[in-house]
Design a protein that fits this description.
Blueprint (H helix, E strand, L loop, with lengths): L2 H10 L7 H10 L5 H9 L5 H7 L11 E9 L2 E8 L4 H14 L5 E3 L5 E9 L3 H9 L1 H11 L1 H5 L3 E10 L2 E9 L6 H19 L5 E4 L6 E9 L10 H17 L1 H21 L4 H12 L9 E6 L2 E9 L7 H5 L1 H9 L5 H24 L4 H15 L6 H10 L5 H16 L1
Antiparallel strand pairs: 1-2, 3-8, 4-6, 4-7, 5-6, 8-10, 9-10
Helix pairs in contact: 2-3, 3-14, 5-15, 7-9, 10-11, 10-15, 11-12, 11-15, 16-17, 17-18
The structure holds (R)-mevalonate (MEV).
């Protein structure tokens, strides 16, 4: 091979074909990683002891998971590298494929809610009518208590936006809605809710049942993408046919809870993995998303795909409880790196990127499902994990992974092939 054709090959190598070091270098050259962030990724150090000890009780160790990036996801006109932490090899591969298809239509456009609101519930059981009236009359006093309970959020332009009560059966719930600005908000809202509840307990001469934020929200982030149908063609199906089948699969999810659950799991593959990489509370995120999906008559899919002439149009709507400051977000060094990679400026931007990610993740899954099926790509990527499970180490992992591509992907077969490989090496 001539030096010239070799150079050409290196230039044309796809992002996923590069070594980890080459990927970091490329992102650094593209200005998507600064020197410090690149060093952190290269060294992949464990968390500092003190950080780890403070992020969990009874700490015994640390549990590393790989961090990969969805390459070139275009959202609102900016090209992002979206970091995902997770153990399922096909997640990043599928999302990168979805990002590539979305870019054929100019990328994803997304819009987060204008204000970042979180609501707390302060719950009383069996209140008298007189007490209900006292709550109404205390409105301004409660507002002042709330502002004093968390002055820093008020200074940052946030704070309580609404206090009102509702009665259902024997329960009276005082709903306190807080603008949490850039934070995910759990600590801010719980601090405010408990301060208000303390004042109410005195006023009502009774102890509240509890006061806590709600992880339910109908503050939705919406995203959409419009792709020429040719962009979803597969090796055996033309674009129009594949797009029509994607629409049918999407309609089916609207009619079937069983399918909607799996479809949303696929969406959350990317969204939850990115939330972890960004240092966010992915449990709150998951709870909110699935509760929202179940808000109507049945459990519904988060996405919708329709063919419109020569185009396939997809949309997603979901509540995304996220933050860019506070809690573990500020303590985890790699969370900052993930934000930098995705060029996330603020919480709205973060919500928009994650909604876009969920949408393209779903597109890639649907295209595979209605096309070649999920297992071909999935198992090819799982082969690496299987090789490791069979006992391969160092250079053996790549060799065994390659042999497994055209062979039965079972642990027993992987062990047999590893033994064969080692025997060949010994000769
Ligand atoms: C697998 O992790 C996710 C999928 O099942 C999602 C889907 O079916 O849409 C492939």
């Amino acid at each position: 091979m001539s030096a010239c054709s070799c150079t050409w090959q290196i230039k044309m190598a796809k992002f996923y074909q590069l070594s980890r070091e080459e990927r970091i270098e490329q992102l650094q050259k593209a200005g998507q990683l600064n020197e410090t962030a690149a060093r952190l990724l290269r060294q992949s150090p464990l968390l500092p002891e003190a950080t780890a000890a403070h992020l969990t009780e009874n700490q015994l160790g640390q549990f590393p998971l790989p961090l990969g990036v969805v390459h070139r996801l275009r959202v609102n006109g900016l090209t992002r590298e979206v970091a995902i932490v997770g153990e399922e090899p096909s997640v990043v591969a599928a999302a990168s494929n979805g990002a590539r298809m979305a870019s054929l239509g100019g990328g994803v456009y997304a819009q987060a809610p204008q204000a970042h609101l979180v609501t707390a519930e302060i719950v009383y059981a069996g209140l008298s009518k007189a007490n209900l009236q006292r709550i109404d009359e205390a409105h301004d006093d409660l507002l002042a208590v709330a502002q004093r309970a968390h002055p820093s959020i008020v200074r940052r332009g946030g704070g309580v936006r609404d206090i009102r009560s509702i009665v259902k059966e024997q329960f009276t719930t005082v709903l306190v809605t807080v603008d949490v600005q850039e934070a995910m908000g759990a600590n801010i809202v719980n601090t405010i809710a408990e301060a208000i509840a303390d004042r109410l307990d005195v006023l009502l001469q009774t102890r509240r049942l509890f006061a806590i934020l709600s992880n339910y929200s109908e503050q939705l982030t919406q995203a959409s993408v419009t792709i020429p149908v040719a962009g979803v063609a597969t090796a055996s199906g033309n674009g129009a046919a594949v797009a029509a089948r994607i629409e049918l699969a999407s309609r089916y999810a609207q009619a079937s809870t069983a399918r909607a659950t799996t479809s949303n799991k696929g969406v959350m593959n990317g969204v939850a993995g990115a939330a972890i990489a960004l240092g966010n509370d992915y449990r709150a995120l998951e709870a909110g998303v699935h509760a929202y999906a179940g808000r109507g008559q049945g459990y519904a899919p988060l996405t919708n795909w329709r063919v419109d002439g020569e185009f396939l149009r997809g949309t997603i709507s979901l509540p995304l409880q996220l933050g860019t400051v506070g809690g573990a977000i500020s303590a985890l060094p790699l969370a900052r790196v993930s934000r930098e990679l995705a060029r996330i400026e603020c919480v709205r931007d973060e919500q928009e990127v994650l909604a876009a990610l969920g949408l393209v993740q779903n597109l890639a899954a649907l295209r595979a499902l209605v096309g070649p099926g999920i297992q071909a790509g999935h198992m090819a990527l799982q082969a690496g994990a299987l090789a490791i499970a069979a006992g391969a180490s160092g250079g053996e992992v790549d060799q065994l992974t390659a042999r497994l591509q055209d062979s039965e992907k079972t642990l027993r077969n992987a062990q047999r092939l590893l033994q064969q490989l080692r025997q060949e090496e010994d000769k």
